[in-house]
Each structure stands twice: as C-alpha cells, then as structure tokens.
Design goal:
Layout (H helix, E strand, L loop, with lengths): L3 E4 L2 E4 L1 E3 L4 E7 L6 E4 L5 H19 L17 H14 L3 H14 L7
Antiparallel strand pairs: 1-2, 2-4, 3-4, 4-5
Length: about 120
C-alpha cells in the first residue's frame, strides 16, 4: 500500500483528516501510543521518523525497553465447532493447537490469499 511507511522496524499508516486538513499517523503494533501529523505531504515522512526517534530516546531516558512490533501473540475468537476441528487436526498431526494455527496462517500467507467477505 502506498500509505504505509516503515522506519527502524516500526510501521505506520498515513491517513488524511479532512476536518483539520492534516496528514496523521501513529506507530502500529505497539501498546505505547506514539502519533504524529503534518500539514505538508513533503513533511509527513520526516515527522514519522522524528516520532520513532523520539520514542526510542524517551525509552532510553526512562530506562524502558522500547516495545517491538507484533510480539507474536494474539487472541482470536472462533466458533466452538471450528475450535474442536482445529484441535482434532492438531492432535492428529501430533502438534499443539498453536502450531496448527501457525501452519494454517503460514499456508494462507504463502499462497497470498485475500479474504473476500
């Protein structure tokens, strides 16, 4: 996507706020809230870089480990029947439910599947 940027392992999606006529973004994938904005399209990337650098410097100053994007854990909710079927698949494959889910997601991603709902 053309509105997504990456810097030092952090990502953002740039959005336009028509009310304030500004471009805005926030660092995605971390619990800390770090946002930025610019009125000039030529400045938004610079503002994103400054926001990441400021976040990293702040963490250093207060002795906090900066959060990394996407720690590898997330919760999902599925139907009890799908949960049962997936657990049985994992049992038959001799692996954990987490390993079975990871295999399914890996297959989905490697086949560049797109959900159309």
């Amino acid at each position: 996507m053309k509105n997504i940027m990456e810097y030092k392992g952090y990502h953002t999606r740039i959005e336009f706020d028509a009310e304030s006529m500004t471009l805005r973004g926030k660092i995605e994938g971390i619990n800390d809230y770090v946002d930025f904005e610019a009125e000039d399209i030529a400045k938004i990337e610079e503002e994103f870089h400054l926001a990441v650098d400021d976040y990293l410097e702040f963490c250093k100053e207060v002795g906090k480990e900066p959060e990394k994007e996407y720690k590898g854990t997330f919760n999902i909710r599925i139907s009890p029947e799908m949960h049962k079927q997936l657990a049985l698949c994992a049992f038959k494959d001799g692996c954990s439910l987490n390993a079975e889910v990871e295999k399914a997601i890996s297959f989905f991603i490697s086949n560049d599947q797109t959900y159309v709902g």
